[in-house]
Amino acid sequence: MDSAFVKLVTSTRMFTDRLAIVAGAGRSGLAAAKLLHRLGATVRIVDANENLTADVLEGLGPNAQLMTGPFCEAQFAGADVIVLSPGVPVRKILPYTGDLPERKIISELELAVWFADEPKIAITGTNGKTTTTALIEHILKESGRTVFAGANYGTPLSEYIVGQERADVLVLEVSSFQLQNCRLFRPQAAILLNVSANHLDYHEDMAEYLAAKLKIFERQSREELAILPADMRDELNPSEFTRAEVKWFDGTAFPEQPNLPGAHNRLNVEAAWLALEKIGLSRSEFEAGLKTFRGKPHRIEEIGSVNGVRFIDDSKGTNLDAVRAALTTFKGPVRLLLGGVFKGGDVRELIPVMRDRVAEVALFGAGREHFEPALKDDFKISWHENLEKAVRTLFAGSNPGDTILLSPGTASFDAYKGYAARGDDFKRIMEELS
Fold it and tell me: How far apart are the C-alpha atoms of 35 and 12, rounded to whole Å?
């Protein structure tokens, strides 16, 4: 382990004789638990999953505890600090936390940044976070910098903190879940890519969702940079939520890249450039890395063609705004696959961008009650119990030159472990058709 970190936690031991409760035993929660243990805490993990075993306590010391089942007062009794995994909304535990001040309820990200002195670029938004994070990571590496990229993307920051390697720059994809309980998070460059209806099964409303996103800028000083989308100028007054220098991006700074198609990616590229310029990269370094970047899978990814029909995997398109962005990439005819666990928004707002592009819609799995009533009067539409039946129906009616687009506008958990598994299944179906 890095000697500076060992010295830090040895000298700090800030949670010695304290009970730290971690809500949620996912990867972020377990990473936070390990960091808390290194800081001297007695750790208790609480999780609604009653099938968890004591294996999750490995490496957390002899006094570590596991309590499972629906949240209750007993699970949080005696807490000196509570660390939330991203999937646990604070409002779900507040009825059980007694008189513990809410400032002592923090996110895993907040805990980790207390020990992260490296320059930080942070990216949030409804869509494009992972692509922009990966793009920044790639360009930094191509320029010779060492990079940690993580938080909501891949590796939790707490896992990096307790690890052995240190990086020149931290590139952090951060979600509204993580930001909602951050108070000291202060990136050198912070990006808000966009905001549209999403996670309304988690947040109470759009106002709460936007407020959580804007916390990325809250602690920034005048020496730091807030990067904001120009199409939200009328909605956002930066003086209300940050002291940082503000730059707006509108997607006009760079031409469309062959490896990053679509107007939405021109926005992502410009936001990435402003962040990297802030921490000292030259334009030539940026453009060299941009040329060699390849997009992440399941994001408007052309996976092949069968009998002249293109197949596009945009399984990561888990909300309506992502569907809109995917559709604007194609001229048509598009045969569109929609379906899964609906996360909010007005489906009818898709109709203008679907007109003159979408020849047919096939719904699959959950979400039919949201899509069918909104679209049935304007488009040929059918519903199928699973993705395979929907794809085969669309393919049967396709002609050479058509595009079958999986951009479901929903989460995948009605039928798959995640969006990647849904995209992989789409590819399997295409390969069987060939």
Answer: 12
Q: Cα–Cα distance between 98 and 86 in angstroms, integer? A: 22
Query: How many Å apart are CA 20 and CA 42, to the nearest integer?
Result: 6
Sheet hosting strand 189-192, strand order edge to edge: 147-151, 169-173, 120-124, 189-192, 225-229, 245-249
Q: Rounded to 5 degrees, what are φ and ψ at 164?
A: -95, -25
Asked, as a colleague might, if the bond just before 238 is cis with ω within 30 of 0, I would say: no
> CATH homologous superfamily of domain 111-292?
Mur-like, catalytic domain (3.40.1190.10)
The CATH class for the domain spanning 301-433 reads alpha beta
Which among 278, 345, 336 has a CA at the least distance from the CA of 127? 345
- pLDDT digit string (tens) for 303-347? 999 999 999 999 999 999 899 989 998 887 999 999 999 988 999
pLDDT of res. 5: 46
**pTM score, whole prediction:** 0.81
Q: Which fold has domain 18-100?
A: Rossmann fold (3.40.50)
Residue 308, exposed/middle/buried by CB under 10 A (0-12, 13-18, 19+)?
Answer: exposed
In the chain, CATH 3.90.190.20 covers: 301-433
